[in-house]
Structure prediction request, 322 residues.
Amino acid sequence: MAPFWEHLRSRAVVVTAVVFLVLMCVPVALVGVYRRTSDTIDAQVFASQSALVDLAAQAVRVKLDGLVTIASSMASSTALVTDVAGSKWTDAADAARDMQNDVKYYDPFIDRIIIYDPQGIQRAAYPALVGGLGTSAASGSWYAALSSGKESSYVTNVILRTSKPQIQVVSVAVPIKGPSGTVAGFLVLQIPTDNFLAFGENISPGTYSFAYIVDQEGNIVAHPKYSSDNGEVVNYAFNPAVKNVMNGESGTLTVQDSGVVGIVTYRPVADYGWGVIGQELSEEAFAGNSSILFDIRLLIGILTIVNLLIVYMLFRILSSRP
Prediction:
């Protein structure tokens, strides 16, 4: 009887092993489904974040283009050109006031209009503020670019303006050309940096997520942590994502700080050297899809346990003595 019993057990082992392998085809297939689903979800999360940052970068570019168009239109105004060419600075300030209140030129982003003479000295402004008139911009980047004729317009980096109240602003500068075509002066629009905050509000909807905008030197233009009257300009050029976007690069980084993992997506603002950076916690980014993966893992676990119970019972039945 012993040889027969051993043969019976061996046959039971073979049969149950075959049955187990067949039954495990479904859980194994689900493992493949899990991996593909996980990769797809990851790709969708990254694509969604990238699309939002892309849209924000394009929106910022459109806004800057619009401000440049307004500045150029103002600079070609007949009244302003006549006043600046004739060094009638009081009249130039009045012309700036009229344009600021004219629907043709109005833009809520514009906080102030400033007029400079050909030497870069501030001669008129609306509204007039303390500490501006008579100051020189001859050492500024916009003056060098426009006075040399290399550029027809210039968007500056973030600066702390000299006029009171001192707030952080971005300026759009264009030349004012006289009747003969020579440069009679310069028109500068000042925009408080807070006005750009809205472009990043809908990029990262998570509780601990945010987006920010930097200029061509890596200075913070708009960031939920800072405001226009925050004091000195904050520079983020040390940040890897900011470094990359300053070089005109686009991409996504995974960063870790104190054990917290974040996803950082960055896109340059074409033609202006600015950049938009969106940052989101990995935990929040994938929170909406984790339940799908959990369900697949749970199903794999349940099927595996059921399969083990089935083959165990089958083995007991096949190997039992008659």
User: Anything to note?
Assistant: Residues 160 and 232 are 7 Å apart (CA to CA). The chain has a mean pLDDT of 84. The chain is about 45% helix and 20% strand.
